[in-house]
Each structure stands twice: as structure tokens, then as C-alpha cells.
């Protein structure tokens, strides 16, 4: 019973550490008229906010075939996103842990009454 609070604190620390140390790769999606291209932001100017680099000028400077013919920058749309971030992984792990824990508790509740009946029957003969 003494280990239970420590186990909770250690698991909480590990989850916070996983979420805060997010080093996932960001992507910039350049949409020129009906064509779109996804470009990985491998070397962002600002590592804390890599999406600041995903601009219309970035798409034009990348010399995409669909965007080079564009003269009006209003027709170029940019979307910045991340895949497989540690925050997403932590949420999935917590969801699976909670779901597994609830299923385990349901299984124990189903088995426990039978175990206690057997123990009562075993020890009821000793009390007479």
C-alpha cells in the first residue's frame, strides 16, 4: 500500500515528461489552386514555433510546380500540422490504460464473489 502513491507520482512524472519533450516533426501543406504538396519542416527557424515558417512566401520559395505559375498570393493556402506527436501518443496510452484498468476491475468484480463464497464455505466448517 505504501508503493501506490509513489507509483502514481512516477507514472504522472513520466507522462508529463513525454508530453513536454515533444520533438515531433511539423509539416507545411501548400495548396495552390487545386494542387497540394506536403513539405516537412526539417530545419525550422524557430524550433519552439515551427509553424511560423509555413507561409505563402515559404511555398513560393520552395519552387513547387503548381505554385510557380501563381502570381496572386491570395490563391495560395498554407496549413501547418504535426504527425505522431508525443502528446498524441500519451493520450492514446492513457486511454488504453484506463480502458484496460476498467476491464480488469469488471473482471475482478465478476470473479470476486465466487472466490469469497468458496472461502466462506471452506471456513464455515471451522467455526462450528
UniProtKB/TrEMBL annotation:
Residues 1-21 form the signal peptide. Keywords: Membrane, Signal, Transmembrane, Transmembrane helix. It comes from the Eukaryota. The chain crosses the membrane at residues 90-112. This is Uncharacterized protein. The lineage of its organism: Eukaryota, Fungi, Dikarya, Ascomycota, Taphrinomycotina.
Amino acid at each position: 500500500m505504501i508503493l501506490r502513491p509513489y507509483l502514481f507520482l512516477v507514472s504522472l512524472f513520466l507522462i508529463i515528461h513525454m508530453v513536454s519533450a515533444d520533438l515531433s516533426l511539423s509539416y507545411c501543406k501548400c495548396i495552390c489552386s487545386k494542387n497540394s504538396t506536403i513539405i516537412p519542416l526539417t530545419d525550422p527557424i524557430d524550433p519552439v514555433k515551427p509553424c511560423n515558417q509555413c507561409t505563402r512566401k515559404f511555398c513560393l520559395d520552395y519552387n513547387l510546380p503548381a505554385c510557380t505559375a501563381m502570381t496572386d498570393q491570395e490563391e495560395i493556402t498554407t496549413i501547418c500540422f504535426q504527425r505522431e506527436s508525443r502528446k498524441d501518443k500519451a493520450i492514446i496510452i492513457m486511454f488504453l490504460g484506463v480502458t484496460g484498468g476498467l476491464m480488469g476491475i469488471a473482471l475482478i468484480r465478476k470473479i470476486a464473489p465466487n472466490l469469497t463464497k468458496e472461502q466462506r464455505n471452506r471456513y464455515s466448517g471451522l467455526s462450528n
